[in-house]
Write a structure and sequence with these properties.
single chain; 339 residues; alpha/beta; Rossmann fold; 2 domains; 7-stranded mixed β-sheet; 4-stranded parallel β-sheet; 17% strand; elongated
C-alpha cells in the first residue's frame, strides 16, 4: 500500500475499475461491472459440455468461500461449464499442487483465490505457460512475474473497507486508549484492510495506540489464541480490529473468557451470516460488509467474455459498507445462510 493517498472517501458509491487491461490478443480492455443475483446449489458430478473450470480458494469451510464456489458452479453451469472446487486449506504448497493438477488436466480456466498472494505466482506462471487463463477473486497475486499474467481480478475495495473499520473503532472507543489488530499478512485483501484502518487513524490524528498486531491466519481458533495472548500482555486494551469474522469471533470468545464483555469493542470484517448474527447479538460492533455474490458472478462473467473474445476488466473493486446493530435489526436476510 506504499504511496497510496491517505485521503479517500469512506462513502464510495461506485465500483472502481482499473484500466489498462488486456484481452487474449493484447488489445486494451474496457471495464464492466459485476452483476448480482443467483442462488447456491451443489456442484454437478459430470463434466459440462464445454469443459471444466478449476477453482481453488483459501478454505472451503469458510462460508464466504463456500458461497462463492456454489455461485460460480451454478453460473458457469448455465454456460455449459463444470466447476471443480477445491480447498487450499490455508496451505500455499497444497494450493500450488492443486494448480499443477488443473494444468495437467488442461482445464478451460482457473478461478484462483490465493492462500498466499506471492506463493500462488508459481501456479499462475505454469497455467499461463500452458495457455490456461487465470482469474483471481477476493485476493490478488503479488508475485512480480505472475501478477500481470492474471486475465482479470475482482474483489472488494478492502482499503476502503479498512477505512470504515477505523471509523467504527474511533466511534466506539473514542480517541484515547490502546487497541490491537488481528491480522493475516500473507494475503493482499487483509493487508489492504489493515492499511485502511491504520490510515484512517492517521488521517484523523487519532490518539489511539496500536499495541499489538498479530496474525490469526483468518480462522476462529487462532483468533481465540491470539486474542488471549493480547489480553494477557495488554489487559487494558479498549478495542480489537480483526480482519475477518472468524478471527473476530475467536477474539470475542477470548474477551468473554476473560470476563471483559462490554469493556472491549471488537470490529470485524465481512458481514458473513455468523458475523451479522454476532453484530445483532452485540458481540461485534461493526463488520464492514463484502458482497460475495457480485464477486462470484463477476468472475464467471469475465471468463465468458474472455472466451467470447470480448473486452474484460483487468481489475474491479467493489465498495464495502458498514454493518451495525441497526443494520442487523432491519436486515431481512440476516439469518440467511445465502449471505
Amino acid at each position: 500500500m506504499a504511496g497510496r493517498p491517505f485521503v479517500r472517501s469512506v462513502l464510495v458509491l461506485v465500483v472502481v475499475v482499473v484500466a489498462g487491461s488486456c484481452s487474449r490478443d493484447g488489445s486494451t480492455l474496457a471495464d464492466r461491472d459485476a452483476s448480482d443475483g443467483a442462488t447456491a446449489f451443489a456442484p454437478t458430478e459430470r463434466d459440462g459440455p464445454k469443459g471444466r473450470i478449476g477453482l481453488t480458494c483459501m478454505d472451503l469451510t469458510n462460508p464466504f468461500f463456500k458461497l462463492i464456489a456454489n455461485l460460480m458452479t451454478e453460473e458457469a453451469g448455465k454456460h455449459g461449464y463444470e466447476v471443480v472446487a477445491l480447498s487450499g486449506e490455508l496451505d500455499p504448497a497444497k494450493q500450488n499442487n492443486q494448480l499443477n493438477d488443473f494444468v495437467a488436466q488442461q482445464v478451460a480456466a482457473i478461478f484462483l483465490n490465493p492462500v498466499d498472494s506471492k506463493a500462488a505466482g508459481e501456479g499462475v506462471k505454469k497455467a499461463h505457460a500452458a495457455g490456461i487463463p487465470v482469474f483471481t477473486f477476493d485476493v490478488e497475486v503479488t508475485d512480480e512475474e505472475a501478477k500481470d499474467l492474471v486475465v482479470s481480478h475482482i474483489g472488494s475495495d478492502n482499503y476502503q473497507g479498512g477505512l470504515l473499520a477505523g471509523e467504527s473503532m474511533v466511534k466506539a472507543v473514542g480517541d484515547n486508549g490502546k487497541i490491537a489488530i488481528i491480522t493475516y499478512p500473507e494475503v493482499t485483501s487483509c493487508i489492504h484492510r489493515q492499511s485502511g484502518f491504520k490510515d484512517y487513524l492517521r488521517e484523523q490524528k487519532s490518539n489511539l495506540e496500536i499495541v499489538a498486531e498479530l496474525s490469526a491466519k483468518g480462522n476462529r481458533d487462532d483468533g481465540l489464541a491470539v486474542a488471549t495472548d493480547i489480553l494477557q500482555s495488554h489487559p487494558d486494551i479498549k478495542g480489537i480490529f480483526a480482519i475477518n469474522d472468524p478471527s473476530a469471533l475467536g477474539a470475542h470468545a477470548a474477551v468473554k473468557k476473560a470476563g471483559k464483555e462490554g469493556q472491549i469493542t471488537i470490529v470485524a470484517f465481512d458481514a458473513s451470516p455468523a458475523g451479522k448474527q454476532a453484530v445483532y447479538e452485540k458481540k461485534l460492533y461493526d463488520s464492514p460488509q463484502q458482497f460475495p455474490r457480485k464477486m462470484a458472478l463477476g468472475t464467471v462473467h469475465a471468463f465468458i467474455q474472455y472466451m467470447n473474445g470480448e473486452d474484460v476488466a483487468k481489475k474491479t473493486f467493489i465498495p464495502c459498507a458498514h454493518y451495525y446493530y441497526e443494520d442487523a435489526v432491519n436486515d431481512p436476510n440476516r439469518v440467511s445462510e445465502q449471505w
